[in-house]
Write a structure and sequence with these properties.
There is one protein chain. It is built from four helices and twelve strands, in the order H-E-E-E-E-E-E-E-E-E-E-E-H-H-H-E. The chain is of the alpha+beta class. The chain has two domains: 29 residues; 131 residues, Jelly Rolls (Sandwich). The strands form two sheets. Strands 3, 4, 5, 6, 7, 8, 9, 10, 11 and 12 form a ten-stranded antiparallel sheet that branches. Strands 1-2 form a two-stranded antiparallel sheet. The chain starts with a helix and ends with a strand.
């Protein structure tokens, strides 16, 4: 074999190996929501009463761990459900939700099963399980979203105008883009 061809093959093999390595490093750390490489921290602390805040008519959400920091694997929020909170029947195709109730309580309906959950209770909802949530008196909970970018959904909702909220097609699109599917 010609030595120059052999050198070319070795160089090309090294180039391919470097390209494949770079691809995996890049895409294992690529955040498709922000279109940048995410650099997860070794540790993070969000103090009581802090975190990115989203205050809506029915609840007040504080993001404690952003999905941007975990490549979409986890999102953790503190959610203060205001009295009269109601979330219509919906499900998620890939997201698992874990609710830990810090204070107060809520009622969650799975088809014909109604569960009243209160302080200290934990409820886990797997993907594809239809559920409705309501809280007459309000509640404070810690919610963990596995494979969910709930904070990205809140960011999109926060950027909407009052007229946008009237556009059912837009609202459905945003919800479904964020793995929330209503009846």
């Amino acid at each position: 074999m010609d030595p120059s061809f052999s050198d070319y093959c070795r160089s090309y093999s090294r180039f391919l190996a470097l390209l494949i390595y770079s691809y995996f490093i890049y895409y294992l750390n690529f955040d498709t929501t922000t279109n940048h490489i995410s650099h997860m921290k070794e540790f993070q602390i969000i103090k009581n009463g802090s975190g990115k805040s989203f205050d809506y008519s029915q609840d007040h959400v504080f993001v404690k761990l952003s999905s941007h920091d975990t490549n979409g694997e986890l999102c953790v929020v503190e959610d203060v459900l205001k009295p009269g909170f109601y979330l219509a029947r919906h499900h998620h195709k890939i997201m698992t939700e874990v609710f830990y109730i810090i204070d107060g309580g809520f009622e969650i309906t799975f088809d014909d099963n109604i569960i009243n959950a209160g302080r200290g209770d934990t409820i886990t909802i797997q993907p594809m399980v239809w559920h409705t949530v309501k809280s007459e008196l309000g509640a404070k909970l810690l919610t963990i979203f596995k494979n969910g970018r709930f904070d990205a959904y809140l960011e999109k909702m926060d950027a909407l105008t009052p007229d946008d909220f009237k556009d059912e097609a837009l609202m459905t699109s945003i919800a479904e883009d964020n793995d929330i599917f209503y009846e």
